[in-house]
Request: fold
Amino acid sequence: MSLSSTVLTGILTSESVNARELPMEAWAYGLITLSIFAVLGFVVASYRDVANRHRAKAEAFAARHGAEHGGHGH
Reply:
Protein backbone atom coordinates (compact mmCIF):
# COMPACT_ATOMS: atom_id res chain seq x y z
CA MET A 1 0.00 0.00 0.00
CA SER A 2 1.15 3.47 -0.71
CA LEU A 3 1.35 6.17 1.93
CA SER A 4 -1.61 8.10 0.54
CA SER A 5 -3.89 5.05 0.48
CA THR A 6 -2.84 4.18 4.03
CA VAL A 7 -3.63 7.68 5.25
CA LEU A 8 -6.94 7.70 3.36
CA THR A 9 -7.92 4.33 4.79
CA GLY A 10 -7.00 5.52 8.26
CA ILE A 11 -9.12 8.65 7.87
CA LEU A 12 -12.13 6.79 6.51
CA THR A 13 -12.08 4.08 9.18
CA SER A 14 -11.34 6.42 12.06
CA GLU A 15 -13.99 6.22 14.74
CA SER A 16 -13.01 9.18 16.89
CA VAL A 17 -13.43 12.66 15.53
CA ASN A 18 -11.81 15.64 17.20
CA ALA A 19 -14.75 18.00 16.75
CA ARG A 20 -15.02 20.98 19.02
CA GLU A 21 -18.34 22.11 20.35
CA LEU A 22 -19.33 25.68 19.64
CA PRO A 23 -19.69 27.85 22.75
CA MET A 24 -23.20 28.87 21.62
CA GLU A 25 -25.79 27.89 19.06
CA ALA A 26 -24.97 28.46 15.39
CA TRP A 27 -27.90 30.87 14.87
CA ALA A 28 -26.51 33.13 17.62
CA TYR A 29 -23.41 33.83 15.51
CA GLY A 30 -25.66 35.01 12.70
CA LEU A 31 -27.65 37.21 15.07
CA ILE A 32 -24.49 38.80 16.47
CA THR A 33 -23.13 39.39 12.95
CA LEU A 34 -26.42 40.91 11.81
CA SER A 35 -26.43 43.22 14.83
CA ILE A 36 -22.87 44.38 14.16
CA PHE A 37 -23.66 45.11 10.51
CA ALA A 38 -26.81 47.01 11.53
CA VAL A 39 -24.83 49.21 13.92
CA LEU A 40 -22.14 49.83 11.30
CA GLY A 41 -24.84 50.64 8.74
CA PHE A 42 -26.34 53.18 11.13
CA VAL A 43 -22.93 54.81 11.62
CA VAL A 44 -22.37 55.04 7.87
CA ALA A 45 -25.88 56.42 7.31
CA SER A 46 -25.33 59.07 9.97
CA TYR A 47 -22.54 60.59 7.83
CA ARG A 48 -24.81 60.86 4.80
CA ASP A 49 -24.98 64.34 3.30
CA VAL A 50 -22.44 65.81 5.76
CA ALA A 51 -20.84 68.01 3.10
CA ASN A 52 -24.12 69.80 2.40
CA ARG A 53 -24.66 70.73 6.05
CA HIS A 54 -22.09 73.51 5.74
CA ARG A 55 -22.81 74.72 2.22
CA ALA A 56 -23.24 78.36 3.34
CA LYS A 57 -19.81 78.34 5.00
CA ALA A 58 -18.19 76.83 1.91
CA GLU A 59 -19.80 79.37 -0.40
CA ALA A 60 -18.78 82.25 1.89
CA PHE A 61 -15.19 81.00 1.95
CA ALA A 62 -15.14 80.66 -1.84
CA ALA A 63 -16.54 84.20 -2.22
CA ARG A 64 -13.89 85.69 0.13
CA HIS A 65 -10.92 83.85 -1.33
CA GLY A 66 -11.86 83.75 -4.96
CA ALA A 67 -11.92 80.90 -7.41
CA GLU A 68 -8.20 80.10 -7.19
CA HIS A 69 -8.76 78.01 -4.03
CA GLY A 70 -11.95 76.28 -5.10
CA GLY A 71 -12.32 73.28 -7.33
CA HIS A 72 -9.90 70.61 -8.42
CA GLY A 73 -8.89 71.88 -11.86
CA HIS A 74 -5.41 73.39 -11.64
User: Anything to note?
Assistant: Residues 28 and 34 are 10 Å apart (CA to CA). Residues 26-46 form the longest helix (21 residues). The mean pLDDT is 79.
